Amino acid sequence: MNKLSMPCGALTILFKRQRIALGVFLAVVIAGIAYLIFAEQKYESVAELVVRFGTRSIPDINHAPTTELTPSDRREIVLSHAAILGSPDLAQATIKAFGVENIYPEIVSNPPSRWSVMDEAVRKFSDNLWVGVGTQDNIISVSFLHPDKVLARDIVKKLIDLYVAQQSAVYHDPHTDFLKHEVQQAADHLSAAQTAFQDFKEKWHINDYDGEVTELLTRRGDADASLRQAQANLDQAQNRRGDLEKLMHSVPKTLPEPASGEKFKSLDDAQTRLADLRNKRSQMLATYSANSSAMISLEAGIADAEAEVRTRQNELEQRSSSNVNTVYQTLQTDYLRTVADAESNAEPVRVLTAQINEIDHRLNDLRDVRGTFSDLGREQQLAEDLYRSLSTQYEDARVNESLNQERISSVAVISQPSLPYKTARPRRLVTLLATLCAGVILAVGSALLIESLDDRFTTADQLALQLAVPVLATFDYRRRSLPRPLTVQGRME
Length: 493
Known about the structure:
Strand content: 5-15%
Number of strands: 8
Strand order of the largest sheet: 2-3-1-6
CATH class of the domain at 40-172 and 409-415: Alpha Beta
Number of helices: 16
Radius of gyration: 67 Å
Oligomer: single chain
């Protein structure tokens, strides 16, 4: 029969099993009181530490801008410090500093069989040590329980001292010797890179590659513009010289003196006489035949007149003087000036062409060695960056080493370990309240458990529910022999 499903009242069951419930309650209370009486009295020493960040931490010799930590980063750092405080190695070092026989003499007198005395002492030390971190701050609270209040304070103080040394070794291990060796290697590498780069620049006469290329390109642009102008002037002078040569061939150098005055009178008379004879011949041809004696005589006179005209003309040409042609002289002067201009413009073209060729040759050389120059420059820059970085780290390591020697840390004690004036364990009021609550809960639970295991019917309602029939009457059980009146229960619906 499953009596847990029956609608039994808890109070009814509790009163029914009151002896068992009261017995359990008293047993729990007595056990709690016994614990308070016989439990080892322990004192609690408490200290508080603060973890500093940024400019509030240890001195910073690196002048580079620092990165602001996020709240999660700060939280992780504080938790890591708390983990160091609660580490078994730190607990073991603290126990060794005082001696196991002084802190836990009971362990030395009764050592464990399955592990060493130190392991047992570390386990008990960790159980009595509490390291807490707040939810939104950088404060670490440290507390330790021990029967000796003075020893509890000294243990917490020693634990903090060992923690400061430990966290300095963890967070600020300088590795000075290693960094010194690395800096020396970086310096040798930098010297070799600088020497190779300097030799290469001296070989190719390079001081500033980009600056020289820019200067050469600027000079080439200016020289090219000047060359184009000089070439245009030269072409213009040569074209003008050709035009002047053509004009000089078509213009005579001298001009004859004009025929006028007494100088040409004999020639004019001979020409007049020849013209008259020719007119007369024209008139006579209309009357006389060509073979007549008169015509023959006239032709002979015309021939004599023509001969006389030629003679007079030859004499006149031999005796007459020619004048210089000023147009030809002007053209000749312009031609000579043009030739001089062409010769003067030809020299700049030659010089500028040579300069451009020299600049192009230098640019080609620089273009060919650009890859090697860039590689050597990049190698030197990388060597300089590496040397600068390692030098900074080495200086940081030297300062951190000095800080460690002086025990300067980013963690500061804001509350020294306290000397307790009363015991902290066991907590009497809390233990007593917990014992009473546990006694009530266990008493009620025990009554319900025993009732659930009992398969007998104790109430009319249980019987009516199980048999599905109404109960007509019930009889109460009493130890005395006197009869009780019959109790009639009403009909159930």
